[in-house]
Amino acid sequence: MAAKTMRNLASGSGTVSTTTGSKALTFSANQEFKRGATVVIGSQLFTVQEGYGTTWIALQAATATVSGQSFTTTDPSTAKSRGSTGVLIPEALVNFYFSHQDDAGGADYYMYGDTVLPEMGMHPYTKEVFVGAALVTRSIDSPAIKPIDRVRLLEGAVRGSSGSTFGNPDARFDNIESKLAPAILAGGTDNVNLATGANSFGPLVGPVTLSASSAAGFRTVMPRAGTIKNLFAAVSVAPGAAKSWAFTVRKNGVDQALTCTISGASATNASDTSHSFTVTAGDEIEIKVAPSGTPTAAKVEWSAELVAADVGDGGTVDTLLGRGDF
User: Fold this and answer.
1) For 83, 161, 174, 216, which has the most beta carbons within 10 A of its beta carbon?
2) Shared-domain flag, residues 218 and 268
3) Is residue 291 part of a domain?
4) Is the dihedral of CA 271, 272, 274, 276 positive or negative?
5) CA–CA dist 146, 288 (Å, integer)
6) 159 and 126 both lie in a single domain
């Protein structure tokens, strides 16, 4: 546990007792600690904040209950030997001090660390100049990292499913995008009644006059990969008893499972939110409207959603929202 640059500790006077979870240190003899002094009781590490006589308060809470234990502490002498018994204490400030002589008295550029705070810019015991400080992190804290890695870590905290930088970093973006409006593919018969005696075909998007046959060039071309789902349809007048309009979305001239039917004397709308199918860029999508039983002539409209495939992590996003993937 010894840290090579930390100033060595000295044996404490008397014994000490601690209680789990408490920051109080109770000594058998009066102590004269400087602020920040180290106290080591077995595996328990403390830095002193304040106190008097036999009762002192540490920055760290005790992790065990002990009674009458010996301890080591910050050396109150002028010695500056390092690297043997000194320790790094989590959550404690390490103060660095500089000397022109090493611990043996030889000329040197000599540095050492100590948790005890400087007084008037100098170590309170060795009287050597204070030159800087660093906070010791806990084992669960992130270590010091390069700026570019820090940016990436912060990016992960924003983008990741739980702050993860590398595991599906777009998860949170996906979640945001899923709450935005999807790409809507909508069309209708342009305020014209639909033929009641034969099937009609046409592009999925736009007000159009539908054709009596399916034909390439009279469809909607998909600009990107994704999934077509959530078909909704409506007519201006109910079909009539035992009559109906069936709406089916087709891909490249083939019926797909996405379909709904408006039927009866009162219904004017229907939907299919259970089925879907995938598309790739360049696929041709169209609507087919099939009458049954010669329904009452009506104007027709429909819509469906395009869930665009996500380029970033292979998932799906419910919008065409543009974004950059790192």
Assistant:
1) 174
2) yes
3) yes
4) negative
5) 59
6) no
> Which residues fall within 8 angstroms of residue 51, CB to CB, at 6 or more apart?
25, 31, 33, 57
Range of the domain at 106: 9-135
How far is Cα 154 from Cα 165, in angstroms, rounded to an integer? 8
* Residues 169 and 190 reside in one and the same domain: no
Shared domain for 89 and 159, answered yes or no, is no
The set of residues, in sequence order, having a beta carbon less than 8 Å from that of 90 and lying 6+ positions away, is: 45, 60, 136, 137, 138, 139
Task: Tally Cβ neighbours within 10 Å of residue 189.
Answer: 22
d(CA 72, CA 47): 12
Q: For residue 284, what are the contacts with CB-CB under 8 A and spacing of at least 6?
A: 216, 219, 220, 221, 222, 251, 252, 253
Of 158 and 37, the structure prediction assigns the larger pLDDT to: 37
* Rounded CA separation 273/239 (Å): 22
pLDDT digits (tens, 9 = 90+) for 63-109: 999 999 999 999 999 999 998 999 999 888 999 999 999 888 889 88
322 domain residue, yes or no: no
Q: CB within 8 A of 246, min separation 6: which ones?
A: 259, 260, 261, 289, 290, 291, 292
- State percent of the chain over pLDDT 90: 67
The pLDDT value recorded for residue 91 is: 84
